[in-house]
Inverse folding.
Protein backbone atom coordinates (compact mmCIF):
# COMPACT_ATOMS: atom_id res chain seq x y z
CA UNK A 1 0.00 0.00 0.00
CA UNK A 2 2.88 2.35 0.81
CA UNK A 3 4.38 1.85 -2.67
CA UNK A 4 1.03 2.61 -4.32
CA UNK A 5 0.62 5.87 -2.40
CA UNK A 6 4.23 6.80 -3.12
CA UNK A 7 3.81 6.34 -6.91
CA UNK A 8 0.46 8.16 -6.97
CA UNK A 9 1.90 11.08 -4.97
CA UNK A 10 5.03 11.18 -7.10
CA UNK A 11 3.06 11.22 -10.35
CA UNK A 12 0.65 13.86 -9.07
CA UNK A 13 3.32 16.15 -7.62
CA UNK A 14 5.94 15.84 -10.36
CA UNK A 15 4.00 15.10 -13.54
CA UNK A 16 0.45 16.40 -13.15
CA UNK A 17 0.56 19.47 -10.90
CA UNK A 18 3.26 21.47 -12.78
CA UNK A 19 1.31 21.16 -16.04
CA UNK A 20 -1.93 22.13 -14.30
CA UNK A 21 -0.19 25.14 -12.71
CA UNK A 22 0.82 26.38 -16.16
CA UNK A 23 -2.39 25.37 -17.93
CA UNK A 24 -4.62 27.24 -15.48
CA UNK A 25 -2.33 30.28 -15.45
CA UNK A 26 -1.29 30.07 -11.80
CA UNK A 27 2.21 30.73 -13.10
CA UNK A 28 2.58 32.56 -16.43
CA UNK A 29 3.43 30.33 -19.39
CA UNK A 30 6.57 32.38 -20.02
CA UNK A 31 8.03 30.82 -16.84
CA UNK A 32 7.57 27.26 -18.10
CA UNK A 33 11.29 26.65 -18.58
CA UNK A 34 12.00 27.76 -15.01
CA UNK A 35 9.28 25.47 -13.73
CA UNK A 36 10.65 22.61 -15.83
CA UNK A 37 14.12 23.26 -14.40
CA UNK A 38 12.83 23.27 -10.81
CA UNK A 39 10.96 20.01 -11.26
CA UNK A 40 13.94 18.44 -13.01
CA UNK A 41 16.11 19.30 -10.01
CA UNK A 42 13.49 17.81 -7.69
CA UNK A 43 13.43 14.60 -9.76
CA UNK A 44 17.25 14.46 -9.71
CA UNK A 45 17.20 14.86 -5.90
CA UNK A 46 14.58 12.09 -5.57
CA UNK A 47 16.65 9.83 -7.85
CA UNK A 48 19.79 10.58 -5.82
CA UNK A 49 17.93 9.97 -2.55
CA UNK A 50 16.69 6.63 -3.88
CA UNK A 51 20.31 5.82 -4.82
CA UNK A 52 19.47 5.44 -8.50
CA UNK A 53 22.51 4.72 -10.61
CA UNK A 54 23.26 6.49 -13.87
CA UNK A 55 22.65 3.17 -15.63
CA UNK A 56 19.18 2.83 -14.07
CA UNK A 57 18.42 6.34 -15.35
CA UNK A 58 19.42 5.23 -18.84
CA UNK A 59 22.62 7.27 -18.92
CA UNK A 60 24.69 4.49 -20.39
CA UNK A 61 27.42 4.15 -22.95
CA UNK A 62 27.88 0.38 -22.88
CA UNK A 63 25.07 -0.33 -25.36
CA UNK A 64 25.68 2.29 -28.06
CA UNK A 65 26.49 -0.32 -30.71
CA UNK A 66 23.23 -2.17 -30.08
CA UNK A 67 21.07 0.95 -29.94
CA UNK A 68 22.38 3.24 -32.69
CA UNK A 69 20.84 1.43 -35.67
CA UNK A 70 17.37 0.93 -34.12
CA UNK A 71 17.23 4.59 -33.10
CA UNK A 72 18.42 5.78 -36.52
CA UNK A 73 15.74 3.68 -38.24
CA UNK A 74 13.09 4.82 -35.73
CA UNK A 75 14.02 8.51 -36.02
CA UNK A 76 14.17 8.43 -39.83
CA UNK A 77 10.76 6.78 -40.04
CA UNK A 78 9.26 9.16 -37.49
CA UNK A 79 10.62 12.22 -39.32
CA UNK A 80 9.20 10.91 -42.60
CA UNK A 81 5.81 10.36 -40.94
CA UNK A 82 5.89 13.85 -39.40
CA UNK A 83 6.71 15.38 -42.80
CA UNK A 84 3.78 13.49 -44.36
CA UNK A 85 1.43 14.75 -41.63
CA UNK A 86 2.76 18.31 -42.11
CA UNK A 87 2.13 18.03 -45.85
CA UNK A 88 -1.40 16.65 -45.35
CA UNK A 89 -2.22 19.46 -42.93
CA UNK A 90 -0.73 22.08 -45.25
CA UNK A 91 1.89 23.15 -42.71
CA UNK A 92 4.85 25.17 -43.91
CA UNK A 93 8.15 25.79 -42.20
CA UNK A 94 8.13 28.76 -39.89
CA UNK A 95 9.40 31.95 -41.53
CA UNK A 96 12.98 32.91 -40.75
CA UNK A 97 13.48 29.74 -38.72
CA UNK A 98 17.23 30.34 -38.62
CA UNK A 99 16.66 33.27 -36.26
CA UNK A 100 14.22 31.39 -33.99
CA UNK A 101 16.10 30.96 -30.68
CA UNK A 102 13.71 28.29 -29.38
CA UNK A 103 14.18 26.20 -32.48
CA UNK A 104 17.94 26.59 -32.58
CA UNK A 105 18.92 26.45 -28.91
CA UNK A 106 16.20 25.03 -26.70
CA UNK A 107 14.95 21.91 -28.45
CA UNK A 108 17.97 19.82 -27.40
CA UNK A 109 17.95 20.58 -23.63
CA UNK A 110 14.14 20.43 -23.53
CA UNK A 111 14.09 17.08 -25.32
CA UNK A 112 16.82 15.67 -23.08
CA UNK A 113 15.05 16.91 -19.95
CA UNK A 114 11.73 15.42 -21.03
CA UNK A 115 13.40 12.08 -21.75
CA UNK A 116 15.18 12.14 -18.38
CA UNK A 117 11.87 12.84 -16.62
CA UNK A 118 9.53 10.57 -18.57
CA UNK A 119 11.73 7.69 -19.69
CA UNK A 120 14.79 7.67 -17.43
CA UNK A 121 12.94 8.40 -14.18
CA UNK A 122 9.20 7.83 -14.57
CA UNK A 123 9.30 4.51 -16.43
CA UNK A 124 11.53 3.05 -13.74
CA UNK A 125 9.17 4.24 -11.02
CA UNK A 126 6.11 2.91 -12.86
CA UNK A 127 7.77 -0.49 -13.22
CA UNK A 128 7.83 -0.67 -9.43
CA UNK A 129 4.04 -0.30 -9.49
CA UNK A 130 2.93 -2.13 -12.64
CA UNK A 131 3.93 -5.67 -13.54
CA UNK A 132 2.88 -5.26 -17.19
CA UNK A 133 5.23 -3.32 -19.45
CA UNK A 134 2.20 -2.39 -21.57
CA UNK A 135 0.73 -0.60 -18.55
CA UNK A 136 4.03 1.19 -17.93
CA UNK A 137 4.23 2.33 -21.55
CA UNK A 138 0.56 3.39 -21.60
CA UNK A 139 0.75 5.45 -18.38
CA UNK A 140 4.09 6.98 -19.35
CA UNK A 141 2.74 7.92 -22.81
CA UNK A 142 -0.47 9.38 -21.36
CA UNK A 143 1.46 11.55 -18.91
CA UNK A 144 3.79 12.62 -21.73
CA UNK A 145 0.73 13.52 -23.82
CA UNK A 146 -0.73 15.48 -20.89
CA UNK A 147 2.44 17.62 -20.90
CA UNK A 148 1.57 18.69 -24.44
CA UNK A 149 -1.82 20.22 -23.55
CA UNK A 150 0.23 23.38 -23.14
CA UNK A 151 1.22 23.59 -26.80
CA UNK A 152 -0.42 24.37 -30.10
CA UNK A 153 -3.62 22.98 -31.51
CA UNK A 154 -4.81 20.16 -29.20
CA UNK A 155 -6.51 18.18 -31.99
CA UNK A 156 -3.17 17.92 -33.78
CA UNK A 157 -0.56 18.05 -31.02
CA UNK A 158 -2.17 15.62 -28.57
CA UNK A 159 -2.51 12.70 -31.02
CA UNK A 160 1.07 13.34 -32.19
CA UNK A 161 2.28 13.50 -28.58
CA UNK A 162 0.44 10.27 -27.73
CA UNK A 163 1.88 8.39 -30.69
CA UNK A 164 5.38 9.73 -30.02
CA UNK A 165 5.01 9.02 -26.28
CA UNK A 166 4.13 5.39 -26.96
CA UNK A 167 6.95 5.13 -29.52
CA UNK A 168 9.60 6.74 -27.26
CA UNK A 169 8.51 4.62 -24.29
CA UNK A 170 8.62 1.44 -26.33
CA UNK A 171 12.00 2.29 -27.87
CA UNK A 172 13.44 3.13 -24.47
CA UNK A 173 12.08 -0.11 -22.99
CA UNK A 174 13.48 -2.16 -25.87
CA UNK A 175 16.75 -0.19 -26.23
CA UNK A 176 17.39 1.55 -22.88
CA UNK A 177 19.75 4.38 -23.68
CA UNK A 178 18.74 7.86 -22.59
CA UNK A 179 21.31 9.53 -24.86
CA UNK A 180 19.86 7.89 -27.95
CA UNK A 181 16.17 8.42 -27.12
CA UNK A 182 16.91 12.06 -26.23
CA UNK A 183 18.77 12.57 -29.52
CA UNK A 184 15.85 11.03 -31.41
CA UNK A 185 13.41 13.23 -29.48
CA UNK A 186 15.55 16.30 -30.29
CA UNK A 187 15.44 15.59 -34.01
CA UNK A 188 11.66 15.11 -33.92
CA UNK A 189 11.19 18.23 -31.79
CA UNK A 190 13.21 20.22 -34.29
CA UNK A 191 11.01 19.07 -37.18
CA UNK A 192 7.79 19.56 -35.16
CA UNK A 193 8.73 23.12 -34.19
CA UNK A 194 10.06 23.86 -37.67
CA UNK A 195 6.61 22.99 -39.06
CA UNK A 196 4.87 24.83 -36.17
CA UNK A 197 3.18 21.80 -34.63
CA UNK A 198 4.20 23.22 -31.24
Amino acid sequence: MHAVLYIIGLVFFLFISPIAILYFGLIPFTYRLWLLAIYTVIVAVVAFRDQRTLRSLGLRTNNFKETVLPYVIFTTGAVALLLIVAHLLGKQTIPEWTSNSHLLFLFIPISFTQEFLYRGFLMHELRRFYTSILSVIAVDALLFTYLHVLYGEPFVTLPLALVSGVAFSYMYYKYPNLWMVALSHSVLNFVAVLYSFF
Notes: The chain has seven helices and no strands. The radius of gyration is 17 Å. The chain has a mean pLDDT of 90.
